[in-house]
Amino acid sequence: MLDKDAPRASPTWRDPKRYLWPLGLIIPLSPFLAWGLVTLLGPGAFWTLGLMIMGIALPLVDKFAGVDRSNPPEDALAALDKDKYYRWCVYLFLPLQYAGLVAACYLWAHGPLGTPERIGLAVTVGVVGGVGINAAHELGHKRENVERWLSKVTLAQTLYGHFYVEHNHGHHLRVATPEDPASAKFGESFWKFLPRTMIHGLHSAWDLESRRLARSGSSPWTLRNNLFNAAAMSIVLFGVLIALFGWIVLPYLLIQAAIAIVLYEAANYLEHYGLMRTTRPDGRYAKPSHRDSWNSDHLWSNLFLYHLQRHSDHHANPVRRYQALRTVDESPQLPAGYAVMIFCAMVPPLWRKVMDQRLMDFYDGDPDLVNVDRTDRAAVRRLEKLSGARAQS
């Protein structure tokens, strides 16, 4: 499916992961796979298959498969970006995502499921929605209008349409600074970060859209406001599903949306924890660099997340497509893939044990380089303790 007008890469290089990317479609297929396993084998625990795949299977495969530090050569990047095969690996996520949602609504309404099984299915659909936010993330960064539109369509399932605005026009400008609601500070637990990023992210999205519309002489109270048209998509989607299957599906739709949001914001939490952009001589922040995001080069979880874990190169080159993202030596590295690190993030003492010393080591023990809330006395004391212990070692 190569574009015949695309630049040609070096004939000696072939993408070794080219035909592995469709594996990511296993996630939106997981409600159907769960249905099949329960039908064939019986145990209702299979309704949580999405969580089993992302939370158990992928970490185990990552553990044994190891990391992938390979990069495409420079002369292959243009051709990779133009190759439409990779786009279809993302585009196909959408119809499968919504087919799974409709199937789940049918099962919630008419299937022989008890309440625990219905909740288990909501967990699987929530995992699909969380990975769907990541697919929307990939699409929303692109210049083509159709991909930006598809990004908002993907977000409708999770009621998270403001992400399209805040992530692209807020987070990418303020990343790894105290002003960014999506960049976690040192010592800030995930459960403290979650309401902060959601509330301030929504406020930021409204402010950004209001200013965008004001520049064209328009009021923010218009359907041209991306927050309103994204919300309208969610309302229409939920309304149609309720009309088709009844009000019984509403609580499960809300549960799956909440799960998806928590999972994606947990990824946001770990991507920039404690990292701070450098400042220029004039006091302004330097351009985002490869040092401003935590990376993970674990092969299989990257295949399922469209290279989201090569996050540093994404921030350095926001419109670069996932297949062309690189890993670089200067990026700070996580000890495991996102699935394991999300679990760690949800247990604050475990997260601090795994990550705080790693952060200090990355900054050579200099506490002044760390993004920390200086009014958080407990975080400042821990930072000083870690810095002092490293200086003595």
UniProtKB/TrEMBL annotation:
Keywords from the named record: Cell inner membrane, Cell membrane, Iron, Membrane, Metal-binding, Monooxygenase, Oxidoreductase, Transmembrane, Transmembrane helix
Short name of one Pfam family: FA_desaturase
Top-level taxon in the UniProt lineage: Bacteria
Membrane topology classification: Multi-pass membrane protein
Transmembrane parts of this sequence: 20-38, 44-61, 88-109, 121-140, 227-247, 253-270
Localization annotation: Cell inner membrane
Principal location: membrane
InterPro entries: AlkB/XylM, FA_desaturase_dom
Fatty acid desaturase domain mapped to chain residues: 121-342
Family indicated by similarity: Belongs to the fatty acid desaturase type 1 family. AlkB subfamily.
PANTHER family on file: ALKANE 1-MONOOXYGENASE 1
Protein name: Alkane 1-monooxygenase
Source organism per UniProt: Rhodococcus navarretei
